[in-house]
């Protein structure tokens, strides 16, 4: 049981590190909060709502995302999309990610 | 839907005022989207059970609000080590001061009553000091600008401060202290007749005791402290370093010395001015007052020096690089 908790905590930390990359990559087309959550989940990346929604605002605060409210029907929704700064950062993050995966794969296969 | 309003109200209570409306509007939008999705999946209108499920999945209001805020500290990680050091030093000083005050007052008050009063005063003093320190550090935490960490490239390992090996001892100093302690033990306990004033009158040598009877009442206590000091120095010479246990022992001896000095300062005269039986009564009274002031002044200086040494020992004990592991390497 204790080992399960430890595993869950470490896995959570591991996921947290990649969520930014996944979200930035995902928001090359504008989307609202719930749709981001759903589509990440459909692609196999389960993200906690309590992590994703505040993260979107933080990334916007850092200038990596842009957002705007739109009213569709009778419901206002906040749409997020990657900013030019975010797009440039994303390219560098992808390179870094690929290097990291390659290194870790090599290490783990030894 | 009433539940969603109640949920939003509670999240709002825990959000910072800035952006609160905007964050709540976004959470409402997310909740409504989630509810619509569930309703479509179930093929029926949203009901209270679905709302409950949506809210449970979204998380407890406090936790949700927490996600939108930077961590807040009364005393954060950058100030905590300094705060803890200050707390330990201040509380140690309070304990020492109480011990000295206890020793001084012991001459005039019953021991049990005085002990109870001292402990009560010490407790109140420690609480008050702790409260003030927390208050000051909380203000510093709020007002100090977030310091910018220097870039790693700017950092030069050669700027690291030199290590002072505080655990190392002064061998010659310890030997001198042992010899002086033994001499004092011998003279004050076995040869008190050596402690005299000698002068000539009408061509004949006359001697008179230098110290009063009151002084000799302190000698047993002084002897215990000298023996304790000798043991400390012998252990130091054997171990070559101050181990944590030995440091606590030294602190105990220092506190006992402070108490004794305090008792002597507040007690009756210890120099036998009658010994100076060479002058008229008025000069004698002046001399008596002067001698008493000199002796008490010297004792006050001793009290201050001992207190400084004690505080230095305590500070060294609380410093991280003075750990037993470090001392072993020394």
User: For the terminal residues of chain A, how far apart are their CA atoms?
Assistant: 29 Å
What is the makeup of the main sheet of chain B? Answer: 2 strands, antiparallel
Strand content of chain A: 15-25%
Q: What is the number of beta strands of chain B? A: 2
Shape of chain B: elongated
What is the general shape of chain A?
A: globular
SS-derived structural category of chain B? mainly alpha
Largest sheet of chain A: 3 strands, antiparallel
Number of strands of chain A: 3
- DSSP strand (E) fraction of chain B? under 5%
Indicate the structural class of chain A: alpha+beta
Ranges of chain A where pLDDT stays below 50 over 5 or more residues in a row are none
Radius of gyration of chain A: 16 Å
Q: Report the order of strands and helices of chain A.
A: HEHHEEH
Q: Are there runs of chain B of 5+ residues with pLDDT below 50, and where?
A: 322-330
Q: Report the helical percentage of chain B.
A: 55-70%
The chain-level mean pLDDT of chain B equals 82
In order across it, which strands form the biggest sheet of chain B? 1-2
Q: Largest protein interface?
A: A-B, 17 and 17 residues
Describe it.
The complex is a heterodimer of chains A (about 110) and B (about 325). Chain A is α+β, with helices and mostly antiparallel strands and about 110 residues long. Chain A has 4 helices and 3 strands, in the order αβααββα. In chain A, a hairpin with a 2-residue loop joins strand 2 (about 65-70) and strand 3 (about 75-80). The mean pLDDT of chain A is about 90. Helix content of chain B is about 70%, strand content about 5%. Chain B contains 11 helices and 2 strands; from the N terminus they run αααααααββαααα. In chain B, helix 5 crosses helix 9 and helix 7 runs antiparallel to helix 8. Chain B is elongated and about 125 Å long. The interface between A and B is medium-sized, with 17 and 17 residues.
